[in-house]
Amino acid sequence: MITALPKQDGAVQAVSQRKRVLLDQAEASGGEQYLGGKYNSTYREDDLKFTQFLIPPGKRVLELGCGRGDMLAALRPSYGVGVDFSARTVARARALHPDLHFVLGDAEDPATLAAIEGPFDYVVIADTIGMFEDIDGTLRLVRYLCGPSTRIVISYYSHLWEPILKLAELMGFKSRQSQVNYIATVDFLNLMDIADFEVIRQEQRQLIPVRLFGLGPLVNRYIAPLPGIRHLCLRTYLVGRPMRQFPDRKFSASILIPCRNERGNIENAILRMPRFGSAQEILFVEGNSSDGTFEECERVRDAYKGEWDIRVLKQDGKGKGDAVRKGFAAAKNDVLMILDADLTMPPEALPKYHAVIESGKAEFVNGTRLVYPMETEAMRPLNFIANRCFAYLFSYLVNTRLTDTLCGTKVLLRRDYEVLARERDYFGNFDPFGDFDLIFGAAKMNLKIIETPIHYKARTFGETQISRFRDGWLLLKMVWFAYRKLKAI
Question: Any idea what DSSP says for residue 208?
Fold first, then answer.
């Protein structure tokens, strides 16, 4: 049976009987959340807190199925638009949040979405995805409101919880709700792929969606996100980006070379540097060496003046992390790249890293030394084993397969790094290596992360700056730190 749905301009849109029932429910409830009431404040608080973690304030946000607009308002957008098909609900939202914009219409109606001015930084579909009658078709419409950096955030109930939620309705702990699709995550992934969205983050939350004498929030924070257990959680969150390639895009590159006691490698870095990108600059950031590295950097800069754009900076603090922050703050080109001065990562491989960013295949590229065979003595056995163990842990923490988090080669867009730097307070100045500050920041920003293998070479000059046992202990602390900041939210 087909009925009519009112639209913003007073016209009507034909809808199915199923959607008419959902509309009647929304009109009757006035936009209250389905898991409402005094019994479910824990559920609401956790859901809101995690959505705020995924979407930082000050962004352009569109929410489809916004209800009374409480979620949209809590995200503190610079420009917020909510869409809902209930006239009563939209009127309530406008009264509660006059600083936001609310559209009366069906999120599945092309005319409704066409009247909205994009692009948006984030598109939020919280729970209403199960009410759509054409999920992949609607997602294709949403793509027209997306820019290259837009993220779509979808949250929904796990299909495993359908019997429990039905029981909660019978017992009065949950508002009655009919004909909602409880779709398995694997099916959502397929639908997003059909609509040309790439899922870059998947999280599960809330094993106990009630307070339960304070036990619920504790379990939900520290136990529910653990591997294996998380698949039993009530809530699933997917973060995706539009799949879009840019074959003709041209970016300039800033190559940062942190160096300390690497005097013998400085000129070789320039001699072996390939030409790539629309322009290049090379920044040596010297870390108070005792072997004349700073003077060598200045000599090389002067010797190759006219051939290369070279700058030499001296660190104010200590450690590679400090060098990376100083160098990236001074960089002026589009793509930021790190090349370790020991040259165990061949400079000749830099163009393929640049191409991954330039083409749009990823927004953060991490090198890995553990795919191809490496030269004898390039990495000590104990370091190799530790790298493998930490790779598993960090892959879980950042929702991306990483085999070699300590590879010095990291590449990202300068505009993304500037956002990362502005939001660094969330993590603080915690990383002496310089690797995890970038990896965790990229994960928090929901950047698309890709690993690219390199042929790892043995050192030809100097000694490693890494201490296996001291830095191994720091890595263990880093795992716990990342768990608290990225999982135990």
Answer: S
